[in-house]
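2024-03-11 09:14:02 INFO queue: dequeued item DNA-PKcs N-terminal domain-containing protein, len=968
2024-03-11 09:14:02 INFO validating residues
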Amino acid sequence: MASDLSTCLRQLKTCLDTQQIPQARSVIDRITQLIIDKADESPTETDFKLECLLTSPNGLVAFLEKSFSNAKHFAKVIEDAFELLRKTIEKHSPLLGKRMPTIVPIVVRCIQSSSVPARPRELAALVLQDSIAYGCLRSDSYEKLGQLSGELFSVFQQGKLPNRLQQNLYELMGQLAKHFPESVTAPDRMRDIFMSAAERQLLEENYPSLVSLAGAIRGLDLFLAHFAPSESDRELRQRLYLMIKKLSIWDEGRSERVVFRNALQLLANHAALFTLHLYLDHVHWQTMLAGKWIKSTNQDDRQIGLNALYAFHGEIARVLSNPALTSAASERECPPTVDVLNQYVGYYRKLLNSPNADHWEVRIAIRGFGIMAGPCQRVAGASVSLNDLLTIVLQRIEGICERTASSTGDMLALLPDFIQALSEILTHAKQLTTVQLVSVQTMTVALVRDFYHLPTVHHELIVRSLVCMLENIGKLGGSTRDQLLDAILLQGIVWSCTHALPFGSSPPVPTPDDDPESKTDWKRDLVTYKNYLPLWQGLLNKARGASDSSLLRAIYRAFQNTLFVMVEKLDLSTRKRTFQDDDGQQRELFFCDPNIDLIPIKPKDYHIFLNLVELSRDVLHGPQTPATVRELFTDWIRPYFERFVKQSLERPLVSGFVKLIEMGLGTAEAIGYFHQREDLAPEDPDVRSIQMVLVYYLEQTIQRALHAMGELQLACLRFVLKAPVRLLLDFVQDEDRQQPLMVEVFRTAFHIGRGLLSMARDALYSLQRIVRFRHPPLKGTQREQLLRQVLPMLESFLRTRDSTQPPAQSLRLAKFKRHRTANVAAGKIERIKQQHRIERTADTSELVTFQMRILKFLSHLQPNECCWLVVDELEQTTGPPAAAGPGEFARSSLTRWDADSGRSLELRLLCESGTRPCIKLDGMVGRVCQLAMECSDRATKLAACELLHTIVLYLLGIGYQDQLAGLW
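2024-03-11 09:14:37 INFO prediction written
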């Protein structure tokens, strides 16, 4: 791939020298394929290709520098080059940060050059915008970032610029002001550029350039994120408001709608700058936004109008809650607050009660009740009180929750808005009655029950509203929030776990009693607990950033209590499997395998328990669980392990308890619980007692893992293999046993791993952790004993070939091989070969990947330790019988080569110095014969056979060495 790229770059330079435009464009297309449409390469290979592309003498940057002198001739080629840069930034943004010092100067030079056509300059500005958007251009990646705004200012001194270029430059400067405010050395000058461009266009009646005006408004919106005018700068705020107000007038006949959307977006983002102006002109804004914008047939216009309407209503509520803000309006008479409040509350109630209202109008009414909750409490004489608003919202929520999801229909999509309004109303509530708390609980449980019906776009709103609601309830004090959380999580998790199991299984087989016309109920058969993970995981993630620091701990406490309560209430008892004999009596069956012999008394409880275990893994103990959530497990380690170890010993056939202890132990190890506590207090009785309990449980689980069958054995083996090394050392350094228990575990795991490679991977990772452990490390004799006994178990994986997947073969490549005489272009041949290489890389089997892991593990061992992978035959016969497995290495060798005899197989070499080194091959003959006969990898077998053939030829010719000196 790198050689292909170098060839393309040389061709690009040749096209530049020979003024070949079509060829240069085709070369850039080829480079785009190599950089963007590439195979799964390593970051190192991609980084090397980008280095060649951007910094080599024949690279893209060098081509742009030389082409600017004849920019009009190479205009299309320069456009393609900048498009390639944009695609590269999008595809490989993490690798381009360090290359900004090379890219930015050439891009700025193109923007500043008046001899370059307009379109390449526009694309150059977009390259910088993409660099900011994808995080490539940063203060640490480009040291001259503070000079960038000044270099862009100089472009406006060139006179009249193309409209699209102006738009891109305005947006670029706005992005610089928003993302790098410290780099803006002259914010007043930048603001004046935006304001003068916008006001100059607005002074003209027909808006001659809506494109550049849209860029100026968008840049101003981004600029105000850090450089908003202060409260004392009323004149500037007035100028901004007049611009926005003029652009807010609805005119659907305009073809260019972006400028008007940008104006409303500025209002939605910075409505707090125009609070008093919006209140004084509330009739105008209500008419424009609610009467025109949100009723547009254009979805983009409607969404922008809704955002601006919510911001506008929020500022009206802010004035109504704080009438002192109107004291600054001395020139105009302010509308009475009571009249304004009653007007908007009446508007919301009319929308909510209207049978013909659209969905977005109902959402406006629902969220409006939450927005006006504060004014309803503070303004005297309001038509409704805070309790009235709360009652209306709760009644509507209960009306939705009492129906089924199928009968509710589209009303269920309004539930997140009701929750958000409820959370805002609760912000101003002084206390909640028992009836109201029950209503909140009913609403939340119903939301969890039907959560999988709601679209993904509503998930963020639901989680945010629930966290806000819990924060507001926590302000009431007492144990109100804890009781509500316990009730919600208990019922909600039960609902989550009553759905189908997440394990892959075939659809249920229809019985003769089933209706053949009945369809599969996806809500019952295809929904699992995984559909609820966005709710539970989002609840914990959102609580981490909540203003109430105790909320996360309260939610975690409720999760743990729910887990304990549900496990206690579930009936996991079993009974003997029975059958009906000829006399009609029930008799018990007897099997050696408990998986067949026993059946659960309550299968539904087992169903819930399996889902509960997997839900706990994904939410509390999974790899995606945040570190702050994991650390909360510290206070629950003792009750967690004591409870589940006891229940696991009481029900040794239930593998779910083993999984619970495994994930808890993994979390404790991840947060460094045992290691930290040992450093602080080596004699801490709490930690010591937990370790003793876990070591005892490990011993019992190892015995189960060696003698159990089926899924229980797999669960026990995985628990032992994933346990912390400090707990496994007692079973590795067992001097009372000739073969420690961990050796038996590894033998069982690797034996099962021949059919289930995931188990072999876990065993290899456990062996690697034990060998690398240093607190304290294994003794030399124990390390040697462990490796001598375990390493031979890996040999069968190395000499096995995955016969289930033949090597990938491209049909196009096979056709090409059959028709070699066809007139095929060289570029097409390279593409076919590249596709073949991609297919072979993508089809790497799981076994090959595991073999590579074994080789990497062996590379970290000493050379003499690697030799223990192959058991010496002489050592097998003279060594202890326990060193070889049952039937594993007891087979006699295929060769009868006696290495101790007087005859020896030697390979004599000639050297210039006269020395004749002698290499003895006796020790490897038996091994080569074994590989030639037993290895299932065809390539290895052929190599072994060729080596044997070579040795035989050498033996035949060694006797003629003196006579045929020229040959031997």
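2024-03-11 09:14:37 INFO annotate: The mean pLDDT is 81.
2024-03-11 09:14:38 INFO item closed
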